[in-house]
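hey so u asked for the seq, here:
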Amino acid sequence: MLIGKRGWKTTLAYVSIMVLPLCGTYLAIRHIPYLAYPIVASLGTLCIWLHKQAGTYLEDLQIHLLKQKRLEAKAWYFESVITNSGNIIFTTDVEHRILKFNRGSERAFGMSQTDVLGKEVHALFASPVEISALLARVDEHGSAEAPELLIKQADSGEDIWISLSVTRMLNRDKETIGEVFNCSNISKRKHLESQLHEKNEQLLRLVITDSLTGLYNVRHLNAELGRMIRAQKRFPNRPVSIALIDVDKFKVYNDSKGHQAGDHLLVMLGNIFTTEIRAEMDSAYRYGGDEFVLLLPDTKIEGARVICDRILVAFRKLRVEPTSLSIGIAQYLPSDEGKEIHHAVKEFIQRADEAMYSVKCKGGDSIGMQPS
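ran it, structure tokens below
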């Protein structure tokens, strides 16, 4: 029990303190009585010194053991904090193979530490190339960050977004022994950002579209025409044409059939526009009432005529008596380049309107071109 608590050296010192004076006194009295007192005194001094040394050693030993226990407790504490942390923390060796994978990492990646131990860290991510670039920056600067990275959960297959910081891990000799990966799950934030972006797009569509036909409105037309005319100053050889379309005798049809039928006619006409124009290049606008505008970039007036011919044929097939279409086409002219934007836009539309009006005066159901 004594040895277990204090160690064999301390126990030997205490035994010596008790045994040596007794043995020395016995021998001195029996064999050399005249030296008994000096021997006893010397042994006593020796015992006192041994007792002091034993006490010092015991105190040092207790301090050492206490420090060791504290270090072990501290190491266990930090190990417990990292292991049980909800944050995503894992470490790799110098070959970028996973050494430690805490519980937060297990939940995020859907894999246990046993599953990933010894595997290359690149395998955890959807884009290994990004991780290679990130680790290259760590080698150069000691640390690196990636605000957004995509991972895929192994168990659910769900896409998860994380923010990631990587720091070089050093030993006491300042030698690199691996990296520490500290991540945060930002999937909820990304989801909210996506929802906000979608709602902003919906709001923007409401601002720039006509509620009845779903086509763009006149506000967006003016903005797009202005943008294209500004672009013409940089690319003057790129043609831009517009077509102004009016429904002949729409008021007669609307009054005789009712507003609901009139609205339905406008919706059908809008569908014809979106079918016949070039997707993601041309655009259609409700200019007001029963008037519409087609904006046709990279299109000369002859090409615009081809598109409008198809629209005219498609509308005739509807056989919505007594209505028809009057269409006027204009092309942006080089002579307009020196004018202010709003004047150029106004005159561009006016030329198409004049061409449309000349057709309407002749009975409609035809296409007119701007004067050459």
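The chain has three domains: 2-67, 87-190, 209-369. Confidence is low (pLDDT under 50) at residues 1-6.
lmk if thats what u needed
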